[in-house]
Write a structure and sequence with these properties.
globular; about 10% strand; alpha/beta; 6 helices; single chain
């Protein structure tokens, strides 16, 4: 029998998980930060300025460069995606799922948004509702 703890451990064994400061440096070098939290958590906890908001249930479709529902930034399998959730558990599972799609540079922030905020890195008030990255391509306002 496999537990959720086993799944998280197996996912993390496949990832090079940056701490918040290294994640910020990766973003400065062109990596894309992706907030996978639901809207209520973004409202409650805050957000990272400039991060794409793609809730977990849309993630693979929006980041797979072969998907008809991909976002414009999903140009190929070499994009560096740095995911985060609240504490870094579901984002580890999500990053491993992206590895399964061939997105070999996907990872997640060790400790998630809470570790980012605790490290004193920039945050802003979070918002609920769909983001442009989450909307299906035909419903986006910017093209």
């Amino acid at each position: 029998m496999t537990t959720v703890g086993d799944l998280v451990a197996a996912a993390r064994a496949r990832l090079d998980r940056p701490d918040p400061r290294r994640a910020a440096a990766l973003a400065e070098d062109g990596a894309l930060l992706v907030d996978t939290r639901p809207g209520w958590q973004r409202v409650e906890e805050g957000a990272i300025p400039g991060a794409l908001v793609i809730e977990r249930n849309h993630l693979e479709w929006r980041l797979d460069p072969t998907s008809d529902a991909r976002i414009p930034e999903a140009v190929d399998h070499d994009v560096t995606w740095v995911l985060f959730c609240s504490e870094g558990y579901s984002s580890s599972l999500a990053a491993a799922s992206l590895h399964d799609l061939g997105l070999h540079r996907a990872t997640d922030i060790d400790g998630g948004f809470r570790a980012w905020a605790a490290a004193g890195l920039p945050t802003e008030p979070g918002q609920d509702g769909p983001s442009e990255a989450t909307r299906p391509p035909l419903h986006r306002t910017s093209r």
